[in-house]
Design a protein that fits this description.
Blueprint lengths: L1 E5 L1 E3 L8 H6 L10 E4 L8 E4 L2 E4 H7 L12 E8 L5 E3 L3 H9 L19 E5 L3 E7 L2 H10 L3 H6 L1 H4 L5 H17 L2 H15 L7 H16 L5 H4 L3 E6 L4 E4 L5 E13 L5 E4 L7 H7 L17 E2 L5 E6 L2 E7 L4 E7 L1 E5 L3 E5 L3 E4 L4 E6 L2 E7 L9
Antiparallel strand pairs: 1-4, 1-20, 2-3, 3-6, 4-5, 6-12, 7-13, 8-11, 8-12, 9-10, 9-12, 14-15, 15-22, 16-21, 17-20, 17-22, 18-19, 18-21
Helix pairs in contact: 8-9
């Protein structure tokens, strides 16, 4: 059985005024639409059409437990993200850290809950348009070259641990952690002055090419989005990546990241645990972030998505990207969400459900279904539960 889903649009200041309305076939109204949520997260559940009545998906799954195929809840969330300004510089915890912190009621320096649920939040983003992302830390020597090129004595001094880090990943990680901590510890007025000095020094380097020119451009973009934010400077420690439409990028626990520009599909564990350190007006939690940060300069995980399911390393979900044309048969013994991102397709499972661009459906476990048509769909499924519920 395939149930049509209507997602919820979230309006954040960094969102695009056109991308999500265009995907949904709506006229833009000037409001920045940042995210379209398609899942059962209690903060913003999608609505499933059941016998002509729209029902919140979380309520439906709580009532019809067999639709979860042994899971206690829908363990993943599908989003469309549309960034017209840079998102926060952030890290997600692993499962053990989130569960422990949530159970103990950990709070940040402002007394706010550090963890909003007991889950980790591994996430995959797949570009629908040209997409710019910061993901993980770059080699210490490369970051040192960028810092040195800016020729700002204070910055050179703050980044000096990068110069002597050596080749060991752990040693480089320690140096990067030290530099990031030093940058974040600067008094607010000093942070703002350093950001301004970096932007001034970077401007004439925009045409330099290589990592120096690339960071110079990034500093201008980020400072335009978040003037005076120390995240502008901290970004020189990170990998700056371009994704073409169809390219994917996975963010595991502990990896510092931020999305800068573009529209993409996100599939993630159904969690809202985010620890931020910059590029945002939202509350920051430096202590919490350093507890979970893995600062080692490891290669980015860039999955190739197609007809065969790709499974997230943390094992919460699988993802396919299908261009079905004459038809593809799929059977997942797990709850599944299908999102059409281009053209139009038809789902066949005894009944027929057409999906055009921007439309989605929830597919019940164990059904064999076929998708066909001149469009593109993303298929996200829960990894089959190890123990099947008797419900």
């Amino acid at each position: 059985m395939a149930l049509p889903l209507t997602g919820a649009v979230r309006n954040y200041a960094w969102g695009s005024t056109t991308a999500i309305p265009r995907l949904l076939g709506r006229e833009p109204d000037g409001t920045p639409a940042a995210e379209l949520w398609l899942g059962a997260h209690p903060a913003e559940p999608a609505f499933a059409l059941v016998e002509g009545v729209e029902v919140p998906l979380d309520a439906l799954l709580a009532r019809e437990r067999h639709l979860l195929a042994g899971h206690s809840e829908l363990p993943f969330l599908v989003k469309v993200l549309a960034a017209e300004r840079a998102l926060s510089l952030q890290v997600h915890p692993d499962e053990a850290r989130a569960a422990d912190g949530y159970a103990r009621g950990e709070t940040d320096a402002a007394g706010l809950p550090r963890y909003l649920d007991p889950h980790h939040k591994p996430e995959l983003v797949v570009a629908l348009t040209p997409f710019r992302a910061l993901s993980g830390t770059r080699p210490a020597a490369e970051a040192a070259v960028v810092a040195r090129a800016l020729a700002i004595p204070q910055l050179t001094r703050l980044c000096s641990p990068l110069e002597d880090a050596g080749a060991s990943l752990d040693a480089q990680g320690d140096a990067i952690r030290t530099v990031l901590r030093n940058l974040l510890a600067l008094p607010p007025a000093e942070r703002a002055r350093l950001v301004d000095a970096v932007v001034v020094a970077a401007t004439p380097l925009c045409g330099a090419g290589g990592s120096i020119g690339r960071y110079a451009d990034l500093a201008g973009v980020l400072s335009g989005d978040h003037p005076g934010d120390i995240g502008v400077v901290a970004a020189l420690l990170l990998n700056d990546l371009d994704l073409a439409p169809g390219d994917a990028l996975f963010q595991p626990a502990g990896v510092i990241h931020a999305y800068v520009r573009g529209t993409g599909v996100e599939i993630m564990a159904s969690s809202d645990n985010v620890l931020r350190c910059g590029l945002t007006p939202k509350p920051l939690d430096h202590d919490g972030l350093f507890q979970v940060l893995d600062p080692r300069p490891l290669p980015a995980i860039r999955p190739l998505l197609g007809e065969q399911p790709w499974t997230a390393p943390e094992g919460r979900f699988t993802v396919r990207r299908l261009r079905p044309r004459d038809g593809i048969h799929v059977q997942d013994n797990a709850p599944t969400i299908v999102l059409c991102t281009e053209g139009e397709v038809v789902l066949h499972d005894g009944a027929v459900l057409p999906l055009r661009q921007g439309q989605a459906a929830f597919l019940c476990p164990a059904d064999v279904w076929r998708v066909s048509g001149p469009g593109e769909v993303f298929v996200a499924s829960a990894v089959p539960a190890l123990v099947t519920s008797a419900a």
